[in-house]
Write a structure and sequence with these properties.
Structural class: alpha/beta
Strand order of the largest sheet: 1-2-3-4-5-7
Order of helices and strands: HEHHHEHHEHHEHHHEEHHHHEEEEEH
Helix content: 40-55%
Strand content: 5-15%
Bound molecules: 2-acetamido-2-deoxy-beta-D-glucopyranose
CATH class: Alpha Beta
Radius of gyration: 21 Å
Number of strands: 11
Organism: Aegilops tauschii subsp. strangulata
EC number: 3.2.1.182
Main location: plastid
CATH superfamily: Glycosidases
Distance between the termini: 18 Å
Largest sheet: 6 strands, parallel
GO molecular function, one term: beta-glucosidase activity
Keywords: Chloroplast, Disulfide bond, Glycosidase, Hydrolase, Plastid, Signal, Transit peptide
Number of helices: 16
Number of domains: 1
CATH topology: TIM Barrel
């Protein structure tokens, strides 16, 4: 916890020094619209910062169980304490205030509010914790921007029906979202239903990196899973869960609470490695398997044609009723988390090793073309340890 905090401060200092050195070309607040119409923020996720994993009558999450299982995390570390935000949130809010930000995106730990999902009670200690954060933020003039789901689900849902693999989760997600609207919606005006579900479906069910650690060859060597089908089943249940939450908000809360609801997706971008038709088509495919995988159904009511063409019946279908629901819910805003752009090489007509990050798009992403990097190199070590996936 302390180390993460010091690393964050160190980064901040570094950034400030960088600005001082480059004063002439530095970006400043004045170049952006006024704070009344433009939010500048910081962002976190519950499991990565809170700690206090058994405090406040919290239930066990999929991450608690996964990181405690011998062999899943190389160095044996876990989020039991993390950045100790559970105890130090006031200090953290002071830090944000000192930065001059006017918004803060954070996620709500499902297991603090509903330790056993919809199979148990609403936990007053969990509600009190987020009430304290929301009230302190508003007191400092910082808009709470709340992510309802950022990868952590009650372990009980994993045990009962296999978590995101089951359509049952749509009910649980709707129930959780509704409790959030009911408890916090009088003060929270910005809701993100899910953070990067398009990345999570791959990390958890294609590559086996995130809980529940499912995968199959050639993507990885896991005890359970099927990398060819599970990511798409999970994605389908996530899309319908999202629609469920939006529909509940639209029908019962938005009019009286006057807030906005959207989703945040991981938005990789691609440039063709070579100026050839095959690489250009590979780019179309890889893009489809990223953002449109989720946003096409949510906005247009069905998956992209490029995905259907490759996956056929492996890609689930939406019923007419579900399409209608998707069509009726729409979005108030779209959140894009962008890390980097890659050169992309076709792997259908050329022989190459497919990149798991590109899923079934049958392509390989590369950081360089003829030895020249696509952009400035970021610090990989920091990216791996401190990034906010
Ligand atoms: C994954 O599921 C597909 C479709 O049911 C099946 O053909 C394939 O053999 C499965 N792969 C593994 C590794 O179980
Ligand atoms: C790609 O190739 C086309 C046709 O050969 C050419 O007109 C175009 O300028 C090329 N683009 C780049 C970026 O090299």
């Amino acid at each position: 916890g302390r180390m993460a905090r010091e690393a964050a401060l160190w980064l901040l200092l570094l950034f400030s020094a960088h600005l001082l050195l480059r004063r002439a070309s530095a970006i400043d607040r004045g170049q952006f619209p006024p704070p009344t119409s433009f939010l500048f923020g910081t962002s976190t996720s519950a499991y990565q910062i809170e700690g206090g994993y058994l405090e406040g009558k919290k239930g066990l999450s999929n991450w608690d169980v996964y990181t405690h299982k011998q062999g899943t995390i190389e160095d044996g570390s876990n989020g039991d304490i993390a950045a100790d935000h559970y105890h130090r949130y006031m200090e953290d809010i002071e830090l944000m205030h000192s930065l001059g930000v006017n918004s803060y995106r954070f996620s709500i730990a499902w297991t603090r509010i509903l330790p056993r999902g919809r199979f148990g009670h609403v936990n007053p200690d969990g509600v009190a914790f987020y009430n304290a954060i929301i009230n302190a933020l508003l007191h400092k003039g910082i808009q709470p921007f709340v992510t309802i789901f950022h990868y952590d689900i009650p372990h009980e849902l994993e045990e009962r029906y296999g978590g995101w693999l089951s359509p049952e989760i749509q009910k649980d997600f709707g129930y959780f979202a509704e409790v959030c609207f009911k408890m916090f919606g009088d003060r929270v005006k910005f809701w993100v239903t899910m953070n990067q579900p398009n990345l999570l479906a791959k990390f958890a069910y294609m590559n086996g990196w995130f809980p529940p650690g499912h995968c199959s060859k050639p993507y990885g060597n896991c005890a359970f899973g099927n990398s060819s089908i599970e990511p798409y089943i999970v994605g389908h249940n996530m899309i319908l869960s999202h629609a469920n939450a939006v529909s509940i908000y639209r029908n019962n809360y938005q009019e009286t609470q006057g807030g906005y609801i959207g989703i945040a997706v991981a938005a990789r971008w691609y440039e063709p490695l070579r100026n050839t038709t095959v690489d250009q088509l590979a780019v179309e495919r890889a893009i489809s398997f990223n953002v449109p995988w989720f946003l096409d159904p949510i906005i247009l009511g069905d998956y992209p044609a490029e995905m259907r063409k490759i996956l056929g019946p492996t890609l689930p279908e939406f019923t007419l009723k579900q399409k209608k629901k998707l069509h009726a819910t729409k979005l108030d805003f779209i959140g894009l988390n962008h890390y980097s752009t890659w050169y992309l090489k076709d792997c259908i007509f050329s022989s190459c090793e497919m990149d798991p990050m590109d899923g079934d798009a049958r392509a390989l992403s590369l950081a360089e073309r003829d030895g020249v990097p696509i952009g400035k190199q970021v610090n990989i070590r920091l990216l791996n340890t401190n990034s906010c996936y």
